[in-house]
């Protein structure tokens, strides 16, 4: 039976530590960290994510502000707001919830955020720092994955990690992070994607699998080596009339067939998801501390 990597529990423990640091910071006469999230439009998923981030900020004693715009906001107006926040010394972190309406260029928006305030870690400067193995802001989901591995003392050095997915927000950065030198790193990493041929050939060799595809139940037991650690990043909403919301979240891993073979596995929900928000708090605290140096 696999060890269930309880992201909710780990996130709560880490949040307590962050809250203690904030208390000490404030007791020493400094301002608490402040995160601002910009939300454009009425997308249900985005509203939920931003709401959860705001709540988490308040739980650890951060300032947390959500700026909501109608989807008719222009790119220029959004850029002007970002410039204003960049220049505000009272704000340490800024995230613009994606996706944005089609008339707004997401790359332009991401690049407009000051790299020091880019607590999502999406800016090219932060991605570049990661690629070079320098200290920078690492995007929240990959950072969250490393925090959960670290918490459970899962060794990555010398292990073969197979990452399925090569997106800029999950697959690519986690593959770099785990191959970089560092406490949760030094792995041999294979990156697979939709053009990979005979995917099982790779996954069956993996000591650790990171599934970041966006296809519910894609990774099945026959693709997994006995004793592998399986990290499921996927979060797809599936219609479910038995749920109050009318949907439930499904991961990229078929838990029923993979769990009996794995040595450890993250559930969905309650695995990587809660860690992402905690990693975002971590990044905001780091941005604040950088100002105090
Ligand atoms: P994405 O940008 O759509 O990337 C998906 C990746 O999967 C792509 O690289 C794609 O390959 C690859 N892929 C698609 N079909 C495949 C196949 N048949 N075989 C192998 N690889 C295949 O998605 P994402 O943003 O990385 O997100 C992935 C999942 O994680 C989604 O469910 C998302 O909701 C979830 N997510 C969760 C969190 C969290 O906090 N828990 C955070 C972020 C994302 P190509 O590059 O060749 O197209």
- Count the E strands: 11
What about the largest sheet? Answer: 6 strands, parallel
Percent of residues in beta strands: 15-25%
Q: What is the name of the CATH class of the largest domain?
A: Alpha Beta
Key features of this structure:
293 residues, alpha/beta, Rossmann fold, 2 domains, 6-stranded parallel β-sheet, 3-stranded parallel β-sheet, 10 helices, 11 strands, 16% strand, binds NADP nicotinamide-adenine-dinucleotide phosphate
Short summary:
This protein is α/β, with parallel strands linked by helices and 293 residues long. Helices cover 40% and strands 16% of the residues.
Molecular structure report:
The chain contains ten helices and eleven strands. With 293 residues, the chain is of the alpha/beta class. The chain has two domains: 30-116, Rossmann fold; 140-272, Rossmann fold. The strands form three sheets. Strands 1-11-8-7-5-6 form a six-stranded parallel beta sheet. Helix 2 crosses helix 10 (272-292), helix 6 packs across helix 7 (171-179) and helix 6 packs across helix 10. The chain is globular and about 50 Å long. It starts with a strand and ends with a helix. The mean pLDDT is 97. The chain binds NADP nicotinamide-adenine-dinucleotide phosphate. NADP nicotinamide-adenine-dinucleotide phosphate (NAP) is lined by residues 141, 164-167, 169-171, 192-196, 199, 212-215, 233-236, 272-273, 276.
Secondary structure elements and their pairing?
Blueprint: E1 3-4, H1 7-27, E2 34-40, H2 44-59, E3 63-69, H3 75-86, E4 93-96, H4 106-112, H5 124-132, H6 140-151, E5 160-164, H7 171-179, E6 188-192, H8 199-203, E7 208-211, E8 229-232, E9 236-239, E10 247-250, H9 255-258, E11 264-265, H10 272-292
Parallel strand pairs: 1-11, 2-3, 2-4, 5-6, 5-7, 7-8, 8-11
Antiparallel strand pairs: 9-10
Bound molecules: NADP nicotinamide-adenine-dinucleotide phosphate (NAP).
């Amino acid at each position: 039976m696999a060890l269930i990597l309880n992201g909710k529990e780990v996130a709560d423990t880490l949040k307590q530590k962050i809250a203690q640091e904030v208390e000490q910071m404030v007791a020493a006469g400094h301002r608490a960290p402040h995160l601002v999230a910009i939300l454009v439009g009425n997308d249900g998923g985005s509203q939920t994510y931003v709401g959860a981030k705001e709540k988490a900020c308040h739980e650890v004693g951060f300032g947390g502000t959500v700026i909501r715009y109608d989807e008719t906001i222009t790119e220029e107006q959004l850029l002007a707001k970002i410039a204003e926040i960049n220049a505000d010394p009272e704000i340490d972190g800024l995230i613009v919830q994606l996706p944005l309406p089609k008339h707004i260029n997401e790359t332009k928006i991401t690049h407009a955020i000051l790299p020091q305030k880019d607590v999502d870690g999406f800016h090219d400067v932060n991605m570049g720092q990661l690629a070079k193995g320098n200290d920078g802001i690492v995007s929240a989901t990959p950072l969250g994955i490393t925090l959960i591995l670290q918490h459970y003392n899962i060794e990555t050095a010398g292990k073969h990690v197979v990452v399925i997915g090569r997106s800029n927000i999950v697959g690519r950065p986690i593959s770099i992070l785990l191959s970089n030198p560092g406490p949760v790193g030094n792995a041999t990493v294979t990156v697979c994607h939709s053009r990979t041929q005979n995917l099982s050939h790779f996954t069956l060799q993996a000591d650790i699998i990171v599934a970041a595809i966006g296809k519910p139940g894609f990774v099945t037991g026959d693709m997994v080596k006995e004793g592998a650690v399986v990290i499921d990043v996927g979060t797809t909403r599936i219609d479910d009339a038995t749920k109050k919301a009318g949907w439930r979240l499904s991961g990229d891993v078929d838990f029923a067939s993979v769990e009996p073979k794995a040595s450890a596995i993250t559930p969905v929900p309650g695995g990587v998801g809660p860690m992402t928000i905690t990693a975002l708090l971590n990044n905001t605290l780091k941005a604040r501390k950088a100002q105090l140096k």
